[in-house]
Amino acid sequence: MSATRWYRPWWNRWLSKRIPPASSVQLNHRRVFIIPSRTGVAFGGALALMLLAGINYQNSLAYGLTFLLFSVFVIAQHHTYGNLAGLTLQAAGGAPVFVGEQAAFRIRLISSVRPHQALALSWPPAPAQVVDVPLLGMVESELAVPAVQRGWLRPGRLRVESQFPLGLLMAWSWVDLDQTVLVYPRPLAGDLPLSAGAGDDPEDEGVKASGHGADDFQGLRSFVPGDAQSRLHWKAFSRGQGLLVKDFVSLVGREQWLDLQALDGDLEARLSLLCYWVLQFSKNQQPFGLRLPGREIASDSGDAHRDACLQALALFGLPA
Amino acid sequence: MSRVQPIPRISLIWLLVAQVLVIVPHLTHLPVWIIALWLVCAGWRIQIFRMRARYPNAWAKVVLMLVAGVGVFISRGSLIGLEAGTVLLVAAFILKLVEMHSRRDALVLIFLGFFTVVTAYLFDDSMLVAFYSLLPVCALLAALIGLQQSVFAERPMATLKLSATLMLQAAPLLLLLFIFFPRIGPLWSLPAPSAKGVSGLSDSMTPGDIADLSRSDELVFRASFTGQMPPRPKLYWRALTMERFDGKRWSQAPFAELAAMPDWQRGGEPWRYSIIMQPTEQRWLFGLDVAQTDLPGVRQLNDFSLQAAAPVDRSLLYEVESWPQSVREAQVARDALQRNLLLPEQGDPRTRAWAQQLRQQYPQTNLLVAALLQHFNREAFYYTLKPPRLEEDSVDAFLFDTRRGFCAHYAGAMTFVLRAAGIPARLVAGYQGGEINSAGNYVSVRQFDAHAWVEYWQPGTGWQAVDPTFQVAPERIESGLEEAMTEEGSFLEDSPFSPLRYRQLSWLNELRLGWDNLNYNWQRWVLGYQSGQQFDLLKRWFGEVRAERLAVALVGGGGLLLGVLALWFFKPWRNRPSPQQRQYQRFERLLLRHGLVRGTAEGPRDFARRAGQQLPAQAALIRQFIEHWEQQFYAGKPADGVQLKRALQALRRALPWRFTRPPERT
Questions:
Q1: Within-domain flag for B397
Q2: Where are the domains of chain A?
Q3: Cβ separation of A58 and B530 shorter than 8 Å?
Q4: What would the pLDDT profile of B299-318 be if each residue is shown by its tens digit?
Q5: Do B173 and A56 touch (CB under 8 A)?
Q6: B360 and B212, same structural domain?
Q7: Residue range of the domain that includes B549
Q8: Is the peptide bond between B290 and the residue preceding it cis, with omega within 30 degrees of 0?
Q9: Pick from A23, A87, B143, B256: most CB atoms within 10 A?
Q10: C-alpha B125: how far from its chain's center?
Q11: Is the domain of B280 the same as that of B354?
Q12: What is the mean pLDDT of residues B169-194?
């Protein structure tokens, strides 16, 4: 299935009308296609030879076996189709990844009428993953798609294929589970010119932030959603004092700002560098702010803040 | 895909089983070394699977192939032809097993297996073989299914069951195709497997030969009559006529087929019947006088026998019409009769003298014949399967000294006497009688029914048949050889296990006749279902046979069958909810019987909590169920419905049994 075929656009349009994207799709006769597989064609050739033997030797049993195998082939249509029909596919989400990693899409397969065997799930041309779904069962499969570009990754239509039981027929469907995974820029290590505020203090230009922010413990404050779990004061919690967070203060004593425009070079490289620093600061629990053209995220720390920043970096400059 | 796909274990298991099943019917005609090769290869393959042996390398493969080829050439004398081809196919089927690593190889092996099954049919197409062959086919299909299954699938029987189900579901369509698929004649002629050791009549014989033939209970042909079957004593099945006598042997006249068509007048009512004959490797067909058939390539010879264009090398079905009352060659040129008067120059002087004496005594031909028959009847002649050996002047010795003989002795001697008396006469070889199977209204004729009788000619009445054996042993004609041999006890003496010897055991005999009937119908309706039969059947069903009707019947019938099967398979009227939903519905129905109804705005969890409060003893179980259900229904925790079902069962057991909803509490 080369992507450059002339009929591609027409085919995609037709498919999205026939099998509209949805997070849960049950396969039925409108959504399953079936044709003889390559093995099936070879099988047909073998049957033709057997028929020839039957004709030339005027042997009724050779005719009989040919007809039996042909009938089995015809009946197998029902089985192969039935192996897909009734199967429900659901998007089960996937965690964000960085460019260069494999984005994992989880797909839930639910059987409601009969067991489904040897279902091959793939985003061609990637190799397929083969799963069996027991009767009335639910199985989750994780499919990897390489993340090559930051932004929302839509893997496109998932190919669900089955040749069960005989391998002579191939039934398949193209399902769009409307799944997306956010791809963050690839983190690239590098030095960062720190900007404080909007560069109002020229003397501070060039102050390097070392990767190892040595923080001082300042005291305890009450938990705010978004605070890192690693900073929870568990001992206090166990004493029944409620959720307290150990509060640190940065030695730099000043808010760190990550500013895209303060950097030079290629946009992607700059985003990658910022991404690296977002991760670094978050690891060190150092509060920081992010400033992108048209968007500013106030200085903060914690996982939620980090994710918001990463998302902003991932989606920067991309059409919504 | 370039990577090699491994063969799943289940597929390998069924391939090994299928191989055994496929090869077994070939054992009767395979050389012994093939079996040795097979054991070695199967053992090797199993060791490969257990990782204790390697796949053969290129050299080993070449050597194995050469060994197999040379072996076939040595044992079959050639590499072409059906016999050698079959051995080669089986050898390939065996060798491929060792070499097989990928799914593709396994596919090749499975296809080879199907072909090997087909070749087995060419050697033997009996009912048993046909039904047996369903086993290897089922195993091969199971192997094919196994190839699709995951490498971890562990239940070979489930795979076999699926393959059997497929075959069972295919049966109606198979039947439809078998009946309606148009049969055509062979596109090119192929050699049939040579029938080894076919016994039967030959085109020349000494009187003792038929006695030898009578030791065999092999089937020759079966004839089924439309309408009333003629009485047994009238069943004289002509095969060929022997017109030459050299003093010892009777033989067919050379170039008999070149003679002109005989002249005969039909008379009386015909008998109509169909015959299915076993291969004889001879060209003659069997028929009651005077027989006609419209089977292509068959013609009536000058001696009223039927002859096919080529030796009959596979079983053959043909329809015959016989006119028993007809007059055969009332007028015929004298020189045409000449060869039926020929005798050796010398020999058997006593017989010749006696013939002259008879001629003078009875100048009229029919009186002479009657007197001759009387002679056989009155004098001390014995009918025996163990006639003494006759050397010089055999007719003399038989007529005047030993007087013990089988049918051919009597027929031969009588023909000799008639010729010596100047009456044109010839010997007819064929079969007499047969076993009447009343269940199927047909008669089975076996080798021991072989018989010889006499035809003589006189002007005006033409050829007439007489049977001297009838004068000596009438029970042979009326009830068969066994009756005739009761005293001597020589019926099928050499085959103590032949079921035909035990016909007096009535249950055994019924069983045998039933089985015979089954085989006959098999041969008639399955093996014989070729163009002629098909045409007749379809004509009977549809009146007229036309290609369009055939196509409509095939396509329409096939479509209908598939539709019905699809309905049965998919049950579209049953729009089932998900298993979790179903279990939850059962849960609500169960609680309903205990007076608990979920409110319209009440969520399942709240409902369960309320139920737990109302039924405190079962609260834990209710909570357990609802937790499982929530996990599965909302959280999408991978599981099958079994866990939920168990939780529901536990709850059901814990609750007191109620069939209906209790009255509302007020």
A1: yes
A2: 10-184, 202-215+250-315
A3: yes
A4: 888 888 898 888 888 788 88
A5: no
A6: yes
A7: 531-570
A8: yes
A9: B143
A10: 4
A11: yes
A12: 84
Domains: count for chain B: 4
Which residue in B607, B528, B104 sits closest to B276, CA to CA? B528
Average pLDDT over residues A89-118: 88
Q: How confident is the model at residue A203 (pLDDT cuts 50, 70, 90)?
A: very low
Q: What is the pLDDT of residue B160?
A: 93
Hey, is the C-beta of B111 within 8 angstroms of any chain A C-beta?
Answer: yes
* Residue B232, Cβ density class (10 Å: 0-12 exposed, 13-18 middle, ≥19 buried): middle
Query: Phi and psi for B617 in degrees, rounded to 5?
Result: -65, -30
Residue B166 belongs to some domain of the structure: no
Query: What whole-number distance in Å separates Cα of residue B591 and Cα of residue B392?
Result: 108
Which pair of structure tokens corresponds to residue A287? 């509060």
Instruction: Give the rounded percent of residues in chain B with a pLDDT score beyond 70.
Output: 93
| pTM of the entire predicted model | 0.76
What is the per-residue pLDDT for A162? 92
Contact in structure between B34 and B94 (CB atoms under 8 Å): yes
State pLDDT tens for residues B571-605.
Answer: 766 655 667 777 887 888 788 778 787 776 677 88
Could B170 and A72 be called an inter-chain contact, meaning their C-beta atoms sit closer than 8 Å? yes
Whether residue B467 lies in the annotated active site: yes
Residue B158 sits at the chain A interface (C-beta within 8 Å): no
- Candidate list B407, B409, B449, B516, residue with the active-site label: B407
How close is the nearest chain A Cα to the Cα of B163, in Å? 9
Q: Which of B462, B486, B502 is the last residue of a domain?
A: B502
Q: Is residue B496 included in any domain, yes or no?
A: yes
Where does the pLDDT of residue B3 fall: very low under 50, low under 70, confident under 90, or very high at 90 and above?
low
Cα A205 versus chain centre, distance: 41
Interchain contact A138–B (C-beta under 8 A): yes
CA-nearest of B392, B387, B395 to B413 is B395
Asked if residue B121 is part of any domain, the answer here is: yes
| CA separation for the pair B215, B56 (Å, rounded) | 53
The verdict on whether B246 is a catalytic residue reads no
Q: Tell me the C-alpha distance between B312 and B306, whole Å.
A: 12
In this structure, the answer to whether residues B345 and B424 fall within a common structural domain is: yes
What's the confidence (pLDDT) of residue B574? 64
CB within 8 Å of chain A, chain B residues 552-581 = 558, 562, 565-566, 569-570, 576-579
Distance CA B349, CA B378 (A): 23
